[in-house]
Amino acid sequence: MSKKQPALSPALHETIIAPPPVDEQPKPKPGINTQAARTRASAETPKPAGALRVATVNVNGIRAAFRKGIESWIEAAQPDVIALQEVRASGDQLRELLPGWHIADDVCSQKGRAGVAVVSRLPLGETRTQIGDDDFDTSGRWLEVDLDVDGTPLTLVSVYAHSGEVDTPKQVEKYRMLEAMSERLAALPKEHERAVFMGDLNVCHEQIDIRNWRSNLKRAGFLPKERAYFDQFFGRPDERYQRLDGTDLGEGLGWIDLGRSAAGDQPGPYTWWSWRGQAFDNDAGWRIDYQATTPQMATAARHYFVDRPATYDQRFTDHSPVVVDYQL
Q: Which of 64, 40, 23, 19 lies closest to 264 in space, CA to CA?
């Protein structure tokens, strides 16, 4: 386990579903994604009685995802709550596609861009979009939602971080958001003991989170300066963390990265593959989609899944849903 990961309850390791060791992976068949054989899909595992199944997925446009088959995945996986990123639709359009769900969304002020939402079988409580400077409130990238789960309060955050681009204003915006996230993630656990922040964070934290790490060291999504923020997000509260230039980021925030907790020191499980070339079939993936929790919420995690399709033509987005069962 990474030295940066806070100590976890033994119960988490005992109950969370992890991929088998690398040497047990079946040899991939042509055209079949290799990770499909080494991780379990949520539809294959019954949800524990009374558990809350929470999913997160970047849909690359919710209307396009419905045309490509997301509805079949929802029916098979049976999530109770879904955090959506890159919705690219109005609230009315989202509600037409998901009748019967309770929906909170934050639409980007630029039509057809970004947008985050939380859709739930359970009634939703208070929502918040405030993070950092005021302009983030209109960017459709951060949405906090409170729920009451049989008397237990829970806060869920759907996040769509900037993808960035080296030496451009896009990268400047990405660092602004990472800075704002750092401040909000420091305060959130003090306000809400049980919380999950999840979504497309557009950063691979460690070398084992990206297949071709050497060739991506100077590319947005795996820059050392970006990854330093994640050292702090998932760092120990009794240690201090620094930016690449040596300036202080502050103490670790103690959030638990459930994907890394599940997989241990093994590569992946990746959550994004480019549409281009043979990235999906060759498993040249990136783990940029997360479910991370407060320490108290981590002890409720029972199952962790990355619902990647078996073949390229079954994809409804270039991301795979990340699904966790929580026993509150």
A: 19
Contact 269/33 with Cβ under 8 angstroms?
A: no
Flag whether pLDDT at 149 surpasses 50. yes
CB of 62 closer than 8 Å to CB of 140: no
Give the model's pLDDT for residue 238.
Answer: 86
Confidence (pTM): 0.89
Q: Is 176 exposed, middle or buried (CB count within 10 Å of its CB: 0-12, 13-18, 19+)? A: middle
Structure token digits, residue 183:
């401040």
CB proximity list for 82: less than 8 A, separation 6 or greater? 54, 55, 56, 57, 74, 118, 119, 120, 321
In 3D, which of 226, 207, 234 has the Cα closest to residue 161? 226
- Nearest Cα neighbor of 255 from 304, 302, 293 is 293
CA atoms of 180 and 249, how far apart (whole Å):
12
Separation between Cα atoms, residue 47 and residue 143, nearest integer Å: 26
**CA distances for 298 relative to 81, 143, 246, angstroms:** 17, 20, 31
270 token code pair: 């990746």
Token pair 């320490």 is found at 295
CB 80 within 8 A of CB 51: no
Q: Residue 22 half-sphere exposure, CB side, CA atoms within 13 Å?
A: 7
**Nearest residue to 201 via CA among 79, 42, 322, 53:** 322
| Lowest pLDDT segment from 22-36, 87-101, 173-187 | 22-36
Burial profile 295-304: b = 16 or more Cβ within 10 angstroms, e = fewer: bebbbbbbbb
Over residues 164-177, the mean pLDDT reads 94
* pLDDT per position as a tens digit, 77-103: 999 999 999 999 999 999 999 999 999
Q: Report which listed range, 107-121, 196-210, 231-245, 259-273, is most confident.
A: 196-210
Non-local (6+) Cβ contacts of 281 within 8 A are 30, 31, 32, 33, 312
